[in-house]
Amino acid sequence: MKDWQKETVYQIYPRSFQDSNGDGIGDINGIISRLDYLQKLGIGLIWLTPMYRSPGNDNGYDIADYYQIDPVFGTMDDFEELLAEAHKRDIKIIMDMVLNHTSDKNHWFQEALKSKDNPYHDFYIWRDPVDGHEPNNWVSKFSGSAWKYVPSLNQYYLHLYDVTMPDLNWRNEKLRDKIFQMLKYWANKGIDGFRLDVINNISKDKNLPNDTFKTPLDDGRNFYTNGPHVHEYIHEMYEKIFGPNHFVTVGELSSTPISEAVKYTNPKRQELSMAFTFHHVKVDYTGGNKWTLGHYKLTDLTKILSDWQVKMNRQGGWNALFWNNHDQPRAISRFTDDGKYRDQSAKLLAMVEFGLQGTPYIYQGDEIAMKNAYFTDINQYQDHESINAYNELINRGVDKRLAIEILQQKSRENSRLPMQWNDSKYYGFTTGQPWLKPEHHDDYSVEKVLKMKNNVFNFYRALIFLRKNKVLLTDGAYRQLNPEDNCVYSYERYDDKGKILVMANFTNENQTRKLENGFDLLLGNYEGIKVSDGTVTLRPYESIMLKNK
Ligand code: NOJ
């Protein structure tokens, strides 16, 4: 068993974590000042979202210079200090690496724009107009066409994301060499791994065919998701960088079937350590469409989780486990109750996640039950994806109030609110004006939560401790119990010697279920447990983890 299979990863979104210089944007020195807090939580790895030099159109996922730290976050010296301080505390650092695209401000793209003969031109994906139009009908994930016309070249470039983020041409060996060289530079700094942004999109079908639009998912992605050479490219990175440096790597793999996720993560294939996949957080995309008011059925959610558990395990793959990240609204607001049952909900989600097989991730703020931003005006948003989606909804004739309600439920801006450290106006995040301002004052903060009896933070600590010490949680097989149950999610992890049982009531009512004799309570989100005559009564949002004697 590898260490990262029983450790927990904590994701930091640096912009929103801790500001140290009063400019309203979180920074590296801020992170350093909070390392003791993270050590107390017990995590083993930190994933840092991008801090390279960037114009910030996509908060750092648009890299202008892979070799520099953006001044808003600090300097390279600060970064090296962070690395050393984290290592002193036995915490590993995983850097986010964006290899599908760059910023249009990147030197490579600036050169590429100069002429078709420029050696960097072929670092990107260009096509001539077809009948005066875009080369195909692919849609950008940030709305609109995935192509942008450049009059001086009479060509279009491909951008699967923001228009300022041109896609790289991985078919070009010279580009690949440049990338490997750059990855080595970071490896030589002594980092411990990479989170690879949208890595399953780097290899496009060379003919770039039109997609069918039979469903909202037939928007081009059939021709670039898990494309023809992606496994070769990743294996090459493994051989050259990940393997020799003993890296922990996690691939962001949206729209990826289990069979492919197995290929990326089965150690025999020497590609990635684990797969970050999204099917479970798309469970409330009505008709496959994200920008709708979604409702989910627990049985749909648990079926997805169970499929991934069983099939990844059977075929030697490895899951990354998560509910939240910087691209997701907060799960507590979406799948449970962030009001009356806020504490129980936060703990229930944590327990369900930590009981599964894979490496658990905590997104900053999960450990204090942070909830959605619930912005009421489009002007409060800065995220391009959300703003574009809003405009598209309005253009389609959707009522403004409904469009705002959809964003309140689905926008990723919800999880980008500054971290709440104390109860002051901006929660001790900054002494200046935060780059993203909360609309409501929320009375949950680290300071306050830590004073509460049986608090969420300590519940996470207990789960992290269990993960490190119970082999069943890492290695045990998974079996769902009562898959038709639409209120209580029950599953067990087992081997030939023992069993751990997790039961989680996703409703605000009592639920009584059968319970075999012979179990001890390992952890629960209420005090005590209500068992009688072979049944257990789970209170609203109650979750329990039991171990057989
Ligand atoms: C996934 C990242 O997590 C997201 O924040 C970003 O917008 C896209 N990739 C594009 O890099």
TrEMBL record:
* InterPro entries tied to this protein: GH, GH13_cat_dom, Glyco_hydro_b, O16G_dom_2, SusG-like_C
One Gene Ontology biological process: oligosaccharide catabolic process
The molecular function GO annotations come to: alpha,alpha-phosphotrehalase activity; alpha-amylase activity
- Domain Glycosyl hydrolase family 13 catalytic, residue spans: 11-401
Keywords annotated in UniProt: Glycosidase, Hydrolase
| UniProt EC number | 3.2.1.93
User: Is Hydrolase among the key words of this record?
Assistant: yes
Coiled-coil residue windows: none
Q: Which PANTHER family match?
A: ALPHA-AMYLASE FAMILY MEMBER, TREHALOSE-6-PHOSPHATE HYDROLASE
Question: Which family would the database say this protein is a member of?
Answer: Belongs to the glycosyl hydrolase 13 family.
Q: What is the protein name given in its UniProt record?
A: Alpha-glucosidase
